[in-house]
Design a protein that fits this description.
The structure holds two protein chains of two kinds. By secondary structure, chain A is largely without helices or strands. Chain A has a single domain, classed as Pectate Lyase C-like. Chain A starts with 17 loop residues before the first strand and ends with a helix. Chain B is mostly helical. Chain B has one domain. Chain B has four helices and no strands. At the A-B interface, strand 2 of A face helix 3 and helix 4 of B.
Chain lengths: ~120, ~130
């Protein structure tokens, strides 16, 4: 049986908004599970974006901001992540990467592999 | 006799002053009425504009489901323009296009992104330039 309740302000789950062009507030990108091979999202504010399970094979993500972005299960083989900002090893821990993934200078594939092996 | 002339001048001056005050009040009332009318016209024009945009938005949403790529591309460009011209609709356009990509961006045989998905990613890049 359906339970009726009176919604309160706390029940409303509104996503935080990102600052877009001309100071406009925008919802973060939610492209989870999309097939975006060879996509170009370089130099873009991808903060808080949901890319869980997104296929970014050979995508150009150079110079983009990944603060708090969800990359769990994202496929990043051959993706260009050079100069990416706010990208952490934790974010990449559950992403699919290989030696063709171009990482920002502050992350290395070997370190990520070691970290992953250490976690197992 | 002189005091009579003086009195009549005083009365005349008061009369002129009274007439001037009435004129000022009437002119003020006219200005207020004209302002109200202008405000009402502006509100009406804005309402008509918003109705037009709502029509455009709804038509674009319907066209996103069209079988022909050209029609879908036209809808995406319309939404892009709405997003530019009406900042209060940018978030709605954004959410709509996010949903479109999630639904439509499926595996392609030649691994090239279709033109509609590419165009939407350009809109995202434009709006979220870091």
């Amino acid at each position: 049986m359906r339970k009726w309740y009176r919604p309160s302000g706390r029940d409303i789950d509104t996503p935080p908004l990102e600052l877009g062009r001309a100071g406009r507030r925008l919802p973060p990108l939610d492209l989870h599970g999309a097939f975006l091979r060879r996509a170009d999202l370089s130099a873009t504010n991808l903060s808080r974006a949901n890319f869980a399970g997104t296929d970014f094979t050979d995508a150009n993500l150079r110079g983009s901001d990944f603060a708090e972005a969800d990359l769990r299960g994202a496929i990043l083989r051959g993706a260009d992540l050079r100069d990416a900002q706010n990208l952490t090893a934790e974010q990449l821990a559950d992403a699919v990467i290989d030696d063709t993934t171009l990482l920002p200078s502050y992350l290395s594939y070997e370190d990520l592999v070691r970290q992953r092996e250490g976690a197992l | 006799m002189a005091w009579w002339v003086e009195l009549s001048e005083i009365v005349r001056n008061f009369g002129l002053l009274g007439a001037a005050l009435v004129g000022v009040v009437l002119a003020g009332m006219r200005v207020v009425a004209a302002n109200r009318q202008a405000d009402a016209s502006l509100r009406q024009a804005e309402l008509a504009r918003r109705t037009h945009v709502a029509d455009l938005f709804n038509r674009a949403v319907e066209q996103l489901d069209h079988d022909k790529l050209q029609v879908r591309l036209g809808a995406i460009h319309t939404l892009r323009q709405i997003s530019r011209d009406f900042p209060d609709l940018t978030a709605a356009v954004f959410e709509l296009l996010n949903g479109y990509v999630r639904e439509r961006a499926e595996e392609q045989p030649n691994e090239e992104l279709p033109a509609d998905i590419r165009t939407i990613l350009e809109v995202f890049k434009e709006e979220l330039r870091s």
